[in-house]
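Subject: design request, 149 residues
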């Protein structure tokens, strides 16, 4: 009897499947991986958006009610866990930046990291400041634009 007969090929397929299953089961034993289905093994680690709240990729579409840069910044930060800082130092800058009209070109942003979306909304005259301890963001004018009123 030849080794290539259909009766002997079926056990070979079963053994190959069993070997693959054992390999996958070994991957499941790791604390860093998770077997989701037959051919998918995922890393059991936080996503970029979970580790770096402002670094997660977002697509933002502002509704028509959002008419100022301040409204857009607040809306973009709404579900991020961050908020706009309110302080005596930032009040002068806030009076200039926040009431600016939201450009139509900024009504839809992304996919882009939230940090870059915030910087885009503020524009090149502003530098994004982050306080990850208190989860606050603020903006200061870049040095080239400080004298402009």
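Subject: RE: design request

Done. Sequence follows.
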């Amino acid at each position: 009897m030849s080794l290539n007969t259909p009766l002997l090929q079926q056990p070979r397929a079963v053994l190959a499947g069993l070997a693959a299953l054992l390999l996958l089961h070994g991957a499941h034993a790791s604390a860093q991986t998770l077997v989701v289905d037959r051919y998918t093994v995922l890393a059991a680690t936080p996503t970029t958006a979970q580790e770096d709240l402002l670094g997660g990729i977002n697509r933002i579409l502002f509704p028509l009610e959002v008419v100022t840069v301040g409204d857009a910044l607040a809306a973009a930060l709404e579900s991020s866990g961050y908020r706009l800082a309110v302080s005596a130092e930032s009040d002068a800058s806030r009076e200039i930046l926040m009431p600016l009209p939201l450009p139509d070109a900024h009504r839809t942003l992304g996919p882009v990291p939230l940090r870059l979306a915030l910087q885009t909304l503020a524009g090149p005259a502003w530098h994004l400041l982050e306080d990850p301890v208190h989860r606050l963001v603020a903006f200061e004018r870049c040095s080239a634009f400080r004298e402009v009123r």
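The longest strand covers residues 108-113.
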